[in-house]
Every structure is written in structure tokens, then in C-alpha cells.
Amino acid sequence: MSRPGFVLEVDDRTPPLLVHNGEGFLLERFPQGTRVVYPPEALPPVRDVDEAIQNALLNPIESEPLPELLRPGMRLTIAFDDISLPLPPMKKPDIRQRVIEAVLELAAQAGVDDVELISANALHRRLTPNELREIVGERVFRSFFPDGKLYNFDAEDRDNLTHLGQTRHGEDVEISKRAAESDLLVYVNVNLVAMDGGHKSTSIGLASYKSLKHHHNSHTMIHSRSFMDHKASKMHHSAWRMGEVLTSHVKVFQIETTLNNDIFGGPIEFLQKREWEWSIKDQASMLGTKRALAAAPAKVRHKIFTDVRSNYGLTGINAGAIEPVHEKTIEAVHRQHLVEVQGQSDVAIMGVPFVGPYNVNSVMNPILAACMGLGYYFNSYRGNPVVRKDGAVILYHPVDYEFSQLHHPSYVDFFEEVLSESTDPATIEAKFEKQYAEDPWYIHLYRTSYAYHGVHPFYMWYWISHALDHCGDIVWVGANRKTVERMGFRSASTLQDALEMVSHSVGRSPSITYLHNPPHLLADVR
Amino acid sequence: MSLADKLKDKKVLVTGVTGFVGEALLHRIIGELPGTTVAAIIRPKGSLTGTDRMAQLLKKDIFKPFYGEGTPYADAEALTAARIQVIDGDLSDVPELPKDLDIVVHCAGDVSFDPPIHEAFTTNVLGTKSLLERIVETGQPVHYVHISTAYTAGRRRGAIPEASVEHFVDWRTEAEAGMAMKSRIEEQSRSAPMLAKFRKEAEKLHRRAGHLTAAADTERRRTEWVAKRLVETGTERARSLGWTDCYTFTKALGERVVEEFSGKLPTSIVRPAIIESAVQSPHPGWIEGFKMAEPLILAYGRGELPEFPASPDSVIEIIPVDHVVGAICAVMATEPELSKPEYYHIGSGARNPLTFEQLYAGVRAYFSKHPFDLGERGAVRLPVWKFPGGDSVETMLRYGERAHKIADKIITSVPRGERTRKYARELDVQKRRLDFLRRYMDLYSEYAQAELQFIDDNVLALHNALEGDDKEKFACDTAVVDWQYYLQELHCPSVTESMRRLDVVRKKRNKALAESAGVLKKVEPSEAKVVAAFDMDGTLLSSNVIETYLWMRLPELDGPQRAGEIGAMLRKLPKLIAAERKDRGTFLRTIYRRYAGADLEELNQIVDEILAEHVLERLSGAAVRRIREHRAAGHKTILITGAVRPLTRPLEPLFDEIVAAELAVDDRGRCTGFLSGPPLVGESRAAWLKHHARQTNIDLSKSFAYADSHSDLPMLSAVGNPVAVSPDVSLFRAARAARWQIVDWKTPSTSSRLELPGVNVR
Asked: What is the pLDDT of residues B354-412, one digit of tens each?
């Protein structure tokens, strides 16, 4: 049995603790009394993955078994989560590949021959053929990709979108035409964190800008407290309403999978162990890694981190109707991520790691770093934020001025043109969003190249609006001053300086909580 | 009897009244000689007549006390009407003179030490001659006061008496030969070997930009050579006869002319030494323009004069301008006999010598107390002179020049980059300093090592003969000057004042420039039709033709073939680079020959499927923003590139028009290795742009062009808003000289030169 997560109180015997810092990590001594939240250790995986998949498909929740839904001559569409999940990417074979292969097997047995596979990337960048191959596996790729039956969703392809109607709140539901017109839509998800899955899968993953803007906006996002708790998230409420409309038109067979916290293996296993339990071997590999990273040129370092693939064990798979399936899923996710934390603190500290959902095989630009820290990690709570209202957040990341012109062309322009005018999400939304969303060049790149949609950086900024609204001070340790300043934050060279800088609002001896993730955790703040 | 009485009702003709001494003399006559009237020959300049220039002169501060309230004259016009007669005219063609002249003071002259030989003879010899002929024409016994220079003594040593310079040079022969040099050197410069030499030098630098650019530079080189040769010829002729330079040489010959006329006119020859700022009148420290020592003083103060080829004990004959003017006035009142010209040395060396070492100490003391404030770096470090002697300084300088030459060669051939440009800029500063040193050392080392002593007994006698308060008003005894006080309190503050004012302005400007450096002004939509032309390789993305060729060809080859292709390119690289430096068109053709046999459709496909992401990844974000900004402003965006058409495909949505090299294909759609038209490089780009502008009614003066290499110079020059993007050193220099905007558009650091999709990147 694995150990649950826990909260450590730093005392004089606590060794320096590991902090993720972009493409690298630090060992930091925290002030005594700092609470350190450790995620639960990896749950034991299911013993036989294939058996679990079969079981889920044949004994779904509140649905007929999948074989009964399949018949010759039907239109079957399989949608799956794109490359933004899981993080870091999974070692081969990807869980989606195994599920999709099982579904296709059943479809073949039933004589279904009109099958299409769609990567549910919404306004994310298209996946390259290689990335698609990594997710669905060589066999599926070869059978479907050359005929154009395995492809990326295109949210700007007006001819291939269907408007299914409006929710009771007047929100447009517009999704992939193929999915909308299918006799059965099978959605294969990877539910890495509590935010994913449920109605978010189809009604967001296969939706157009017209539909997305109803919940991806500064107002909704500021009132999503948090994204990791769909019952308390306005964004999820909207997605759920859209899901109602969607499921009344389309039969959806939802397959949700949950993974354990076995993220770092091999020589970097020490990253997911507790520091005082590091063996000689762990200490040696830590030292070796640290030295090697320090000596390596930036490009080599980047390559090392880009190539990280995680083991992940499957902790559960559920299939059937969306809502009951998702409830089971959330249970499993909570089992793996939830850590009880007593009360809020004045200061929260987080180390932003090298990868976020939107920079797989790319670089984490300043906006993505902010989104990772203040969007994802800050929101990684249930109940109340880890930090009290008007408290301070201290983040670790170099925040270099680095943008991928291929993947994030609108980000660099957003950084230069939008953030230089304002950093207020609502102002930005009113003044710039439409222009970026409708820009023909960005649309061209989104559709034909590998670029995130023009509006995507705005979503990143809305993503952090809750943190901006909630926190009094946001300070980055060891970050590029210029880039951090452009985003409206401040930079400190050491943790001590950062604490000094925030002392005017939280005092000289604030209560501090350090969220020791990844591996992922969800703070259940009471 | 006072001078004012002696010169009462006299009419004095002054030449060179707008010059330093002339102006001071006019001031003194108006102020201290109330009964004397002045006639001034003033050369019209531009649209200004002589009268206008006089009016302008009188507006200067020193003349203001002479008119207006409390004076006999209501305004400057009234003063002119009463005291001054302006004669429009030029000394190269002296106009007829008034018949009522009593005295002529000839101060006009070429003050430059290194004039072209024909100009020196024109002003200093022939001009003097025609002036004297005009004076003789008036038929009056006019007292002719000739302002010469003490250095007519040339390279003689020791005490120089106040007498005619002994030499046997015939001024007529020399003048004739000197005047003839102009056309001879001009002719020589047009000879085939010379022209070929200029052209070769110009082409070495500018061939890439095109023939016309090279031709313009050839002609510039020719005229520059002519000017230089004329100066050199003058200096060498002077030295071959024992003078320091062409100035003193022609001045000495001028004296001969004057001496010839002394039989017809009573004559005095005044020979001042180095005239510097005033002690007393018009006001302490008064100086106009830069004289001999000022550039050196300023350069020293800026820490840019590490050493000077002077002997520390040689005497530097400085005299304040008011002493010169005092002496001239006193001389005017004398009455020399015919055929016995009187000579007056106005110098300080004989009785109050200032050695070079003392001068150095004075200037150094001044700058130690009042250093130049050149910026954020605090006071300038003042060089300490050791006076190692002319030869060592010369050696030092020569080494410096040689080192600079080598460094320059290196910097123009290494790959471009921000650092290269920084070094290039530093080298240019160094070059300016070296040129300055070279020029002043060549000019002045003679004077700084002179061992002359000008006897000034005649002037002292004049001074002593002054009566009453004339001794104050027309003081001309330099023995009274306290040199250290003069240098530190009068002269240096006065000559540095304007520089300090300029420094404040410059500092502000530099600060503003530094802040806006590399920041382009936002593009405004305009009424006129405007284009924005962009170069591709090196401007929008860091790439070059060889690289892009490899991008296109490698994906379709297998392992060994790739190695072969890369090997072949590497072997050819030196040749290709040489070709590129010479003629971009030939270079492009050589590369494009290698496309022979490739399927054009396939190339297009490779670009669309594999290379597009590579190209887009390497695009500079700032470049794309700028292109889009132009589009948003309604400008027509054009991509002008020597790259092949398929490669521009990923950029198509950004541009209204793309001009690229078109690969010719045969009937099966395979590339023949030739282009269907000449590649658009260098001047052809400018020509294309101009033609396009004429056809479509585009206002090029409001248009934009962005390019990175020297070969794009003509295109950049064709538009009103040229921008040099991460330029190579040659373009960088041209852009700085023309004050074009320079920006650095970086290819994102996340892309890698060595990673190639379809080859080593999955």
C-alpha cells in the first residue's frame, strides 16, 4: 500500500528540499515552521491493463456494453485527449493507444467500417504526425492516418462544424460536424488531474471559438474556484450545461482513465521521493543530474527535459455515461492527489517545472510559466486556496524570454503588444481578444502549421485571473526581471529576498506553505 | 598725439573683415578710432550680398554696444552708414576701389595650413597682387599694411629678424607651376590606369551592391584623390624649398609681391605668429571659430591625444588677438618710406616665451580642474605626455594605423552579429581618432618642434611710442601676458565653452537615441500608396542560400547521398564565399545549378510538408509583427528575395507580392538548373522597386525597406524609410553614416541551425 500525502513542518532537522525550477531544480532551505505539502505516493496500478479495459468496455456504467452500441454501417467517431495530457508524456504504449485498440477491435468485430479518429485539440496546436503516432500507436496510425481518417480537430473549418443549439444560459454549443453527426462518439480520455474529463472532454475538446468563449473568459475564470473542483468551477458549470445539449444530440460513450503518480523513473526517481529518504544512489544521481544540468548548454538541457517520458500506472478505467463515469474518475483522482491541509497561510511557494500542458515538445514561454504556476498550481486546491486572500505567492522559474515561433506565434505578440499595454484580464479581453481571435495570419498558422490559436494566450491569462485577483503579491525567484516585470510581477534573486519583498503585506514571520509538486497534488484546504 | 587723432578722417580698407583678425580690427576701429571710416571688401556668399553679411556681422554681441541707446547711432544701419562702406567683391577678382582710401589692411587669406596648391597661390599670391594693382590704380599714396605670418621664415632656425625673408624663389614661376598643377592632377586622375585602380578598390567593397553603386564610389575616390594630391603637391613643393607647408610658402611669396610694390606704395608687413583668444578686447577670452591649437586642446581634454610630437622646450609662439589688432592699428598710423617696407613680428617668444611643456601643463591643469563631462563615466582620464620626440610618436601612430587596418580586415570578413557590429563601431571610433592624430601630427609637428625666435623690436618700439591711454587701448607688448592665467582662465574656458554646451545637447540626444535604439516607430496609415519591401534571408529569418538549398534537397536523399551532398557543398564553400563577396548573382546561379533534375512539384511539396515548420520556427517574431503592422496600416507588403520561389510558400499569407527566383523547368516539370530570369539582387531590386512604384503610383519616399546585407544598399536607398536589419559590417557602416534605423531581429533561440526536419528531426 502506498503512503498518503502529508504536510511536513520544517524544523532544524529538515534537509534542503527539492524545488522545481523550469529546466532544472534547486535544493532550498525553507524557514522553520514552513508547511510542506507532499503528494501521496503512487497508488498501486491495476494488475492487468487489458483486462481492466475489456471490463470497462463490456460492463459500462449506466450504458449498454460497447459491443451492443456497435452495428455495421454506423458512423463511429473516436475522439481522444491531445498531447497536453498527461504531463510529462507517457512512455509507450500510451494508455489511449491501448483503449483505442480495444475499441477498434470491438468495432471490427461488429463490422463497423466508417470510423474516424479525432484528436480533441480545440484551439490547441495541431499534433504532428509523429505526435499522433505516439498517442495512438503505430498500428492505428498506419491504418487511419494515410487515408485521412486520423486527424486533428480544426476549430476554424467552418464547413465541418455543427451548431447543436444553445444551453439554457444561451451558450452556443458548436462542435466537430463529424462528431455531431456520428451514431456513436467514443471519447478516450486521460484524467490526469481533477480538472479534466467529464463534459469538459467533448464540449470543450471538440468545440469552436464561438462555443469556447462562453466559458473561456475572464469573468468565468475568475469565478472558477477552483478549476480542479468541477462543482465549484463556473467554467465546468458551463461545460456541463453544454454537455446536456450535446448528449441530447449525440450518443457519447465516455471512457475515462486515471493514472498514478509514478512520474519520474530511472535516474531521476529521486524527484518523487521524500528528501530525507534519499538513498545513496538517489543522492548520487541527484548530484550527478544537478552537475550535468549546470554544465549542459541550454539546448542540451532542453532536449534532456523534452525527452522525459513517465511510467504512469493505470489506477482505473471507467466507461459509459459521462456523469457517473466522471464521478468514479474523480474519486480515483482524489485518492491519488488529495492532501488535507489545515487552514490557509500567508505565503504559498511553488516551483514551476519544465513542462505544462501547452509546451510539450516546445519551450515554456513566460506566459505559459505564469499560467502553469498561477493557473494550474495555484488552482490545485479544493475548498479554499492554499494562500489567504491578499497573501503572497512565491514562484520558482527562470522565465526566460523564450518563445517558439512555430508553436506560439501569437504568444510572443501578446507578450509584446498586449501585456505592454495592460495586464488586467478584463481590460485585455475587451480591448484585444477579438482582434487576436479573428486574425487571419494566426488562423492560417493554426490550421496549416503547428501553432496555437491566436486567442490561446488570452485564455492563459484568464486562467491566472483568479490568482491575480486573490493574491496581494506575486514574486518570482531567480527569474528574468524584464519578462517578469512585463507581466506585472516582481523578481527576487533568493527566497529570502522574496520573503523580504512581501513582508510589507504578510509581515516578518508569515505562515508559509510550500506545495511540493510535481508529482501532482490537490490541496484540500479546510 | 593719440592714434585716434593720427588716424582721424582717414579711410581704411580692410579685407577679410569677416575673419577672426578682421572682425577684431573692425571692432577696434569702430570703438577706439572714432574719426576713422572703414571700407570693407566682402565676398557675397550664397544668397547673401556683402552688405547682408556686414549686417549679419554687426549683429554679433561684440558690436552691440556700438549702436542703440547711449550711442551716436540709432541702429546697425546708422552705424554702417556713418562709418562703414561695403564693397561687394572677391579677392580672386578685385573690384575697383574707392578713390579716397588712405590705408589698406589686407587681412584676408587662406588660414588653412594644408590648402590645395592652386588655392593657396590664388589667395595668398595672386589675390594679393591684384589687390595691390587695384590700389595703385586709385593713384593715391595709400599706406598698404600687409598681414602675413611670422612663419614665412619657414624651416629656418634661431632668431629671425624683422626683415625681408632671404630666398631666391621666383614667385612668378612658382605661381604659374602651382596653378597648372590643378589641371595636371585632374588629368592624371582621369588616366586609364588610375581610373582602373579606383574602380578596383571601389568594386572590392561595393561590387555586391551593383555597378552603379561601385561607380559612384569610384568617382568619389577619384575626386578625393585629386584633392589629396593637390594638398600633397603643395606641401612637398614648400618643403623642397625650405618651408614647412604650402601656407607659409605662399605667404612668403606673397610678401615678395608686396615688396615689389613697395616702390609705388608705402608698405608695412605685419607678421603675427599663432593668433589665439583675446586678453582684453573685445572681451577676455574672445575667440571666433577654431584656430590652430583648439582642436588639439579639445582632443586632449577628451583624452584622445595620447602624445604629441613636440619638443618640450620648443617655444610655441602664441599671441592674443587683441595684441595683434593693437599692433595693426599702431602700424596703420606709421608712415613708412617708399621702397623701404617696414616689418613687424608679433610674437611672444623673444621676450615672454611659452614652451610647449608649459602649454601642456597649463592645459592639463585646466582640464584637471574642469574636466569634460562626457556621460555616465565620470571625468575623462587625461593622458600624461612624456614628449618622447617626433619619431617615437610617429612610430606609435604608424603601429596604431597598421593594427587598425588589420583589425578592420578581420571585422569585415568574420560572420556578422551583434558583437561584430559593436567591434566595428569601436574600430570606427578608433579610426576617427587615428585620422585626427595623423592629420594634426602631419600639420603641426613642424611648428611644435620649431626652434625659431621672432625678434619683435619694431613692435616693442611701436608700443613704447604709444601716448597716454593708447598704451592700454592698443597694447601690443606680449611680455605682459601671464601665460598660465591666460591659458587656464581665458583661453581654455573660452574654447571649451561651446563644446560643453554641445556636450549637454549631445548627452541628451545620446540618451534619447540609446532609449530608442533598435525600436522602430509605429507604422502610421498614410494617404499615399506605400510599400514595405522585405528581404528574406538574414532579415526575416537567419538563413542563407546554401543552407536553404540543403534544407530542400536533403529530405529526399538517403543517408550516404546526404553525406555526399553536404561534402560537395563543404568542398565548394571557399569558392562560393569568394563568389558571394564578388557578385551575388553569379553566386546564386552557381547554387541553383544544383537544383538540376529536381521535380519542382516535389520541391513545393517538401516545403509544404516538411520545411514550412522549419521556416516558420526560425522567423523572427519582431519581423512578423512588423510585416503585419504594415499590412494593418494598409501598406502593400512585398517580399523581395533571391531565394527560390518554393521556399517562400510558408510566407505567402504575409505578403501581397512575392518576388523570388523562379526555377526554370522542362516539359516534365523537372528543374533545368537555370532560372527563368536573372535573380533579383543588388541594384536590380532597387530598379524593380522603382519600376513597380511608377506603375502602381506608389510613393517611395514614404515607403519602407528592410534588409540585412550590403548588397541591398540600393534598395534601401530607394525608399524614404530604410531599415537595416541585423546588418553586416558594410551595411552597418553605411546605415550609420546615413542615419538609417538599425534593428536587430533575432531568430528565436529555440530553433536550431543543425536540426533539419525530415533529416535528423522527427
From this structure: 998 999 999 999 999 988 876 667 778 888 888 888 788 888 888 989 999 999 888 88
The fold of A49-259 is Rossmann fold (3.40.50)
Q: What is the pTM of this model?
A: 0.82
CB A523 within 8 Å of CB A515: yes
Spatial separation of the C-alpha atoms in residues A461 and A419, rounded to whole Å? 10
End-to-end Cα spacing for chain A: 26
Pairing between β-strand A381-383 and β-strand A522-525 as defined by DSSP bridges? parallel
What is A6-41+337-525's CATH number?
3.90.226.30
Nearest CA in chain B to A407: B617
Q: How far is CA B419 from the centre of its chain?
A: 27
Residue numbers in B near A405 (CB within 8 A) = 616-621, 624, 748, 750-751
Cross-chain Cβ contact A405/B617 below 8 Å? yes
User: Per-domain residue ranges for chain B?
Assistant: 1-169+241-273+317-350+455-481, 531-743
Contacts of B652 in chain A (CB under 8 A): none
| Closest C-alpha among B660, B657, B652, B624 to residue B745 | B624
Spatial neighbors of B656 by CB under 8 A, at least 6 apart, are: B631, B636, B637, B638
Distance between A489 CA and the closest CA of chain B, angstroms: 23
How many residue pairs from chains A and B have C-beta atoms closer than 8 A? 54
Architecture label for domain B1-169+241-273+317-350+455-481: 3-Layer(aba) Sandwich (3.40)
What CATH homologous superfamily does B531-743 map to? HAD superfamily/HAD-like (3.40.50.1000)
Cβ distance of B654 and A130 shorter than 8 Å: no
Are A255 and A317 spatial neighbours (Cβ–Cβ below 8 Å)?
Answer: yes
* pLDDT reported for residue A429: 95
pLDDT in tens, B508-521: 887 777 777 777 88
Report, in this order, helix, strand and coil percent for chain A, each rounded to 5: 40, 20, 40
Measured in angstroms, the CA of B621 and the nearest CA of chain A are apart by 7
